[in-house]
């Protein structure tokens, strides 16, 4: 970081350029917020050889193509995109506002839909996250390599990193996979392995019997840690448990796995398989901001992605739940809509109406001029 970094201010800053971060930035931008997306590059989605289970996206689409198209969309709508790494962050409430924050008021749940229907969600009015829009937000500062970003709201979409087993290994996406729900369909009626010695590895091996009749569980010399009940399941299902470590990998001309070699001199054919060694959650920024973390390292959030820290959201693989592109997209959308409910200037709060009077015609629409002009240019009605 430079001695005198540039300073940029936004309504919302989204950290993370995967599907969840892109979706959150898209919604925040289109709903009238000056939004920045900070993307360090890489990530699980960028490694996808083919995108599965996303309606409208064909399977020859690679993860990098999906993400680059998303970035182009964001820029067209007026989102500012940075390639940067956030090294530290902080949040501070201006002293002049501390008194107003001591008396939270009841507010409408974000789950009340605009068409008048209501999906009941309890709102804790003692929680500062549910303050109405008469309360000014804290200032959240994010320190990048050469730029410092300040925002009213921050969305963390930093995901996690799959823990890779020791080599030798097949190529990622060409025989080594991490998501059963994404890739099990690829291995219907094909020989597969599940690599690991944990409860989750045994569970995935048993699930794969729904797709194929040839499933091996490779502990690679590690002592099993699954429960006695799970051991009974394994013994009563047609799963071969291989304890010898992998000594070599055989690939076809196209780079796909064809077989694994083992230290006892045997070779077993596989089309692919899954490594189940857990995940390292990229929760450093969330922890630094004081967000509550779950025991597994995920960030605790409500139904809209809001964390325990005021105006800080977390979405996608950083939060509990299935690690799927469609779910990440939905997480980002819900966070963007929730931020919209909290930041939109109209309808004006009753207390503000008493203070400022009726809304004047020249005060609407409520979008910033830059985004308003971009929207007018974006749409044609001829």
Automatic annotation (TrEMBL):
A Pfam family it matches: Pyr_redox_2
Ranges for domain FAD/NAD(P)-binding come to 10-332
Keyword Flavoprotein on entry: yes
Task: Please give one Gene Ontology molecular function term for this protein.
Answer: oxidoreductase activity
Q: Tell me the InterPro entries matching this sequence.
A: FAD/NAD-bd_sf, FAD/NAD-binding_dom, Ferredoxin-NADP_redctase_2
Which residue intervals make up region (Disordered)? 89-144
Tree of life domain: Archaea
Q: Which UniProt keywords apply?
A: Flavoprotein, Oxidoreductase
Instruction: Please give the name of this protein.
Output: FAD-dependent pyridine nucleotide-disulfide oxidoreductase
- Source organism per entry reads Natrialba asiatica (strain ATCC 700177 / DSM 12278 / JCM 9576 / FERM P-10747 / NBRC 102637 / 172P1)
